[in-house]
Amino acid sequence: MESVISDADSCIVHQFEKMVELSESEINLLAALERDARKFDSGERLAFAGEYSDRFYTLRSGWACAIKTMADGQRQILDIFLPGQILGLREIGLSHSLTEFRALTPIEACPFPKQRLTEIFEKSPRLTDLFFLIMAREQAMLIERIVNIGRRNAAERLAHFIVEMKVRLNQRACEFHLPMNQSVIGDTLGISSVHVSRTFKHLRDLGLIDNKNGQIEINNLEGLIDLSGFDRTYLETYPDWTRLTKPSKRGY
Amino acid sequence: MESVISDADSCIVHQFEKMVELSESEINLLAALERDARKFDSGERLAFAGEYSDRFYTLRSGWACAIKTMADGQRQILDIFLPGQILGLREIGLSHSLTEFRALTPIEACPFPKQRLTEIFEKSPRLTDLFFLIMAREQAMLIERIVNIGRRNAAERLAHFIVEMKVRLNQRACEFHLPMNQSVIGDTLGISSVHVSRTFKHLRDLGLIDNKNGQIEINNLEGLIDLSGFDRTYLETYPDWTRLTKPSKRGY
DNA sequence: CGATTTCTTGATTCTAATCAAAAACAGTGG
DNA sequence: CCACTGTTTTTGATTAGAATCAAGAAATCG
After folding, report:
1. What is the pLDDT of residue A247?
2. Which of A84, A91, B132, B243 allows an S-S link to A15, with CB 3.0 to 4.6 Å?
């Protein structure tokens, strides 16, 4: 198989290296998941809910999301994916997709067969631990989302979402582009698009943010965090790596 | 270590055997997670949020839940655990607990060190796959919960919750005991306890259920499913077991 | 049986949904 | 560069759903 993308360039390897130092062979295993990049237009669907699916995608560039559409046409967005993430990891072991995956911007995504992960499990217990960890962190995000939707009002939800995106984008600067229209944001937060507009205005009036044309500028991060009840530990609660620091014993 | 409980009796082994046939050695590995049963009173806490934790619990009998408490004292219940489940699986790799775990009834739970799971990963790739699968199914439940809370009104949420519990309890009969008061149910569904009461009345008035003293009787399951928009596939979407049917190649 | 918790019901308030229409903006082709 | 089109955002008016407050009824526990 020919590598279109050099391994050093791999988003997913970067992602993993943020967590732990990788061996040569581990880098190769991971980078193999990110060949064969395909382009998708903004709004294009990568997979349908309920459809048979034997593959995942790694996201190389752009933003994507997982969507669940209800019988009456309402939608709930469940994840926002950034480059380096794997789309659909939670569907390992399921033959049919639980959710729809859709590009939020023009993206490059690299399909690979689910089976490839099982192979990694067999070859590298260390990467197995890491994949387990990634799933665990995705669950942590889902949990935070449940709390957000279940127990916070619109202003708190939106504030929380903005802080979360800022943290995930790892921006030093307090300004970033959010490639989601207010209808999509509403579907993420469980509120109507009209109310998203009002809530943005409310946050502006409070002097917490400015937003214009999909650009978010945070004027008062502390204020946003206070309002939202953002749990600083939730993305920072860093793993207990002790058992991962030793090099892999088994082969590969 | 002395075995208080015979392996054949292990809840967690039963749970796994629902999914796939286990070898002798796999049964031993799993059953080892369920020795040393400890009793907890109804309402007792097994772990605090934010606390250092190097252990999981397997739940042997009774019901438990995971709770997130917010700064202002509001609570959101994130999971309801039934016998055979592992409490806190999602916190593998995190040194501190994300949520609080609390008994909903008097329970027996068996603590075991997180490390034990890593050992299982090293010894049995087949069980590794299964643990991944379990996490994946937990995520599927969290997703359904997000949709439930984000996009359904109180009647739909409660109806959905009742159907979900019925399915999870695997009851042929349409009557079961729900050991949660209406305040706890409200914290699960993201509505107030008062509104839970009204919503039960509403479902009774529609002739869908009867409920009294924590006992639920479903009078019209189809009606409940229709009202709630329950996705029949979501707990039924059964795994693609093909790659699990072959026996383990590696040792153990 | 009394004490405490849980459930029910009513009245009121608040938040957000819905409906509708205008304003702002982005993309297109001339 | 501008006029045209479609989309997105904003704003207002109204309605609906659920929270809150409060008090009485029912169930549970010791």
Report:
1. 38
2. A84
